[in-house]
TrEMBL record:
Keywords attached to this entry: Lipid-binding
Coiled-coil regions, chain positions: none
Keyword Nucleus: no
Signal peptide: none
InterPro entries listed in its UniProt record: DegV, DegV_C, DegV_domain_contain
Biological source species: [Anoxybacillus] calidus
Species lineage: Bacteria, Bacillati, Bacillota, Bacilli, Bacillales
Protein's recorded name: DegV family protein with EDD domain
Length: 280
């Protein structure tokens, strides 16, 4: 059985890796006024953060149309027997449900929608693992069993730098944003039961990064082989410095750098920084 791997743009897997691993991608969109941009197709992260600075209002975001899922599955059916469709958490987007609905509307290919229950490169970890297994000829059932096993150790924590961004997006009340800014509060967030919830409120950016390092150390200090990713919102230099520092401390961990692209960046804002990981 030949199995395709499909994901959405919020995994932010670089195009060269998608091509190398035969990963198919369906984009979500950001809307500035009357202009709609498909992320990773019409607009990329660096362009997005420049656009945000030029607009008074935050963009809105939208999931892929159901018809695009149907069209994509039908196209894949010409070359594949099955497709595992891995998407950002169903608790923050209807994208996964779109895959489920479209799966019931196509014939000639078996569709396995998979809820990563997370997003960004933490979601990408599942996608890349699935793609490697598919290239090795593993069955959809074997791949999904591996993804379920991964889910036991996948972790991600991220810090929001600009509270006003959360407030403008309706994720935080005006009073909370004002008081938080005065106190230099950097909320530490993570996913619980498919939704983003506060983990801790930390007073400064430096302390927030240190706290994420402490949480990472709980898993990494055991010496078990791991993969990890530093994720940034238009803070590449800071992300690279942090990655290099962590790599020196944990030589048994394979580190990479990724980013919060347009859709997720709309809600987190520029300056957000995170760390995701899982045990191999």
């Amino acid at each position: 059985m030949k199995t395709a791997i499909l994901t959405d743009s919020t995994a932010y897997i670089p195009q060269d890796i998608r091509e190398k691993l035969h990963i198919h991608m369906i984009p979500l969109s950001v809307v500035f006024g009357n202009e709609t941009y498909r992320e990773e197709v019409d607009i990329h992260a660096d362009e997005f953060y420049e656009q945000v600075k030029k607009h008074h209002q935050l963009p809105t975001t939208s999931q892929p149309p159901l018809g695009l899922f149907v069209e994509t599955f039908e196209k894949l059916s010409k070359d594949y027997d099955a497709v595992i469709s891995i998407h950002l958490s169903s608790g923050i987007s209807g994208t996964y449900q779109g895959a489920v609905s479209a799966a019931n509307m196509v014939e000639g290919i078996k569709v396995y929608p998979y809820d990563s229950e997370i997003s960004c490169m933490a979601q990408g970890f599942y996608v890349m693992e699935a793609a490697k297994m598919a290239l090795e000829g593993k069955s959809p059932e074997e791949i999904i069993a591996r993804l379920d096993e991964m889910k036991k150790t996948v972790r991600a924590y991220f810090m929001v730098d600009d509270l006003s961004h959360l407030q403008r997006g309706g994720r935080l009340s005006g009073a909370q944003a004002f008081i938080g800014s005065l106190l230099q509060v950097k909320p530490l967030l993570h996913f619980v039961d498919k939704v983003i919830v506060p983990f801790e409120k930390i007073r400064t950016r430096k302390k927030a990064i240190k706290r994420i390092e402490e949480l990472f150390a709980e898993d990494a200090s055991t010496g078990v082989p791991m993969k990890a990713v530093v994720i940034h919102a238009n803070r590449l230099e800071e992300a690279e410095a942090w990655k290099n520092e962590l790599a020196q401390t944990y030589p048994h961990v394979e580190f990479m750098i990724s980013y919060f692209g347009p859709v997720i960046g709309t809600h987190l804002g520029e300056g957000a920084l995170g760390l995701g990981w899982y045990k191999l």
